[in-house]
Amino acid sequence: MRSHTYPGNLYMMIGPSGAGKSTLLRRLIDEDPHLSFSVSYTTRAPRHGEVDGKDYFFIDRARFEAMIKEGAFLEWAEVHANCYGTSRAHIVEQLRAGEDVLLDVDVQGAINLKRQMESVVAIFVAPPNVAALRARLEARGKDSAAVIERRLKNARGEMEQMEQFDFLLVNDDLDRCYDELRTIVAADRLRLFRRRGLAAELLDHF
């Protein structure tokens, strides 16, 4: 019997910049054939090593605003003085194909998505403390000192929104945190309402 028979589901990774969301989701996508990553659109400039179409679709603000008017985004938000948006067409296409989709979204965007999609699974990834967060932001060498200070300042407000989401992971040990993330996804896929096809098939044998 097939175990993966439900329409695709949406998983969101939320948390402060530097909490480790990108590392966790890349590892999960590499190991899970039923998960795909939704590449967001952004108006910010690419960081060193980032690839257009893989990490983000990098566009200017005029194009971003045009896409808003076209209804191209399932959700969008302005964060750290830049805009980010989730492609409606890509999400719908993947879910209809039965694939699960993993999003890396900010707090504001995640709240908007939860209002639109009741079954979305929202996973908040938190750093163990602000000192660890500062060290990670500085170590990755991608942001100026001013940007790092702005991200740290915003992190407190993001942490205050934790209770609006479904799961909390504390990324103080990457391997343990990753195991917990895999457990969340695996358990969610076993929920009965996601396996109605399998339930009907089982009943046919009684």
UniProtKB/TrEMBL annotation:
Major subcellular location class: cytoplasm
Substrates-to-products reaction catalysed: GMP + ATP = GDP + ADP
Residue intervals of the Guanylate kinase-like domain: 8-186
Single annotated GO MF: ATP binding
Record PANTHER family: GUANYLATE KINASE, GUANYLATE KINASE-RELATED
Membership in a protein family: Belongs to the guanylate kinase family.
Protein's name in the database: Guanylate kinase
